[in-house]
Amino acid sequence: MYPVDLHTHTVASTHAYSTVSEYFTIAKEKGIQLFAVTDHGPELVDAPHPWHFQNMAVIPRMINGVGLLYGIEANIKNLQGDTDCYDEILPHMDIVIAGFHDPVMPSQGLVGNTQALIATIASGKVQMISHPGNPKFPIDIAAVASAAAKYNVALEINNSSFIHSRLGSEKNCIAVAKAVRDTGGLLALGSDSHIAYSLGGFDKALEVIKQVGFPEDRILNVTPRRVLNFLESHGRPSIAELASL
Predict the structure, then answer these.
(1) What burial class does residue 195 get, using C-beta atoms within 10 Å of its C-beta: 0-12 exposed, 13-18 middle, 19+ buried?
(2) CATH number, domain at 79?
(3) What is the tally of structural domains in the chain?
(4) Is the pTM of this model over 0.85?
(5) pLDDT digits 0-9 by tens, 13-30
């Protein structure tokens, strides 16, 4: 089990069912050392208000030896790669994940989806792309992986895509992992947990990694320090409270 989970949702996204406090408790029980709270960006139908993201500093960075990253799963809005991580939200975020959610932007077909995703990657405002293997949003996987490697943006292998959401993603996720492997890019693992009990659940994602022989030195979740160094390489400030991780 890897000790970092970079994609979780709380009751602030009303189709999720756990509080931040419950996540800290489960993280301690499971040996998770660092996790990110990444509720949906405010343009999704049941997403939290922008104040949710602007006020995250009230949550302690460290509880009982478990560290927290303030984050958002922003929605890609158009072909230009704009997201709903607004300018007033961005400075408060440690990590910005961006992905397609059809209530905000329906699929634009392979060419349009690829254009939007590459523009998002190149924007300099995003560190990770969520569930790029979603079959509802076909993309040119090789082109996206190449752009992600160029801009040092991680592509996610989303464990939930194999279990609850985006069923039929497996073939695409394998192709994503192979393309990232071959372009020298980075993978991130996300449970996409909507309840604390699934925090750190990467079993299906790990099967993909093993199947394609993905090198462990390019998986962000191996150590908290690897994630923190990665975020700092994107210009995010060092987080003093997490220095011990």
Answers:
(1) middle
(2) 3.20.20.140
(3) 1
(4) yes
(5) 999 999 999 999 999 999
